[in-house]
Design a protein that fits this description.
With about 150 residues, the protein is of the alpha+beta class. The chain is about 30% helix and about 30% strand. The longest helix is centred in the middle third of the chain and has 16 residues.
Length: about 150
């Protein structure tokens, strides 16, 4: 029986969130040009190593929207995969974030700022309002969620 309570059939369109995960490896150094070397070392500790250090990042991208009644999809996952390849993998995978990614020339390459960078890059490919959340795992214990705020 459709009707009350949200079964199939008439009424409004259903909305859903769809997520996809990618992993990339990169190196970086936590260092702010606004601070002295001593202040950077005190603030960032071993992560301020002049030679940098690396991570195997995991990124979960979540999009949201109405489920298309014809395709049954919020978004074609093949398209999302291609957008993530262009916005995340090509610019970041096996790169030194501070030296190879112009965005981080003057922005400290914290996981928070990596999440913002990914969000801004994905916005170039996705229809307006579709991107819901970017979740970046620097490690299993250190995770940042950014929702464009």
């Amino acid at each position: 029986m459709s009707g009350e309570g949200g079964g199939g059939g008439g009424g409004g369109r259903r909305r859903a969130r769809v997520s996809r995960l990618v992993s990339f490896s990169a190196t970086h150094r936590l260092h702010s040009k606004s601070l002295s070397n001593e202040e950077n070392l005190k603030l960032f500790g071993k992560c301020n190593n002049p030679n940098g250090h690396g991570h195997n990042y995991k990124v979960v991208v979540t999009v949201h929207g109405e489920i298309d009644p014809v395709t049954g999809m919020v978004m074609n996952l093949t398209d999302l995969k291609e957008y993530m390849e262009e916005a995340i993998m090509k610019p970041l995978d096996h790169k030194n974030l501070d030296l190879d990614v112009p965005y981080f020339a003057d922005v400290v390459s914290t996981t928070e700022n990596v999440a913002v960078y990914i969000w801004e890059n994905l916005q170039k490919f996705l229809p307006l309002g579709v991107l819901y959340k970017v979740k970046v795992y620097e490690t299993d214990n250190n995770i940042v969620v950014y929702k464009g705020e």
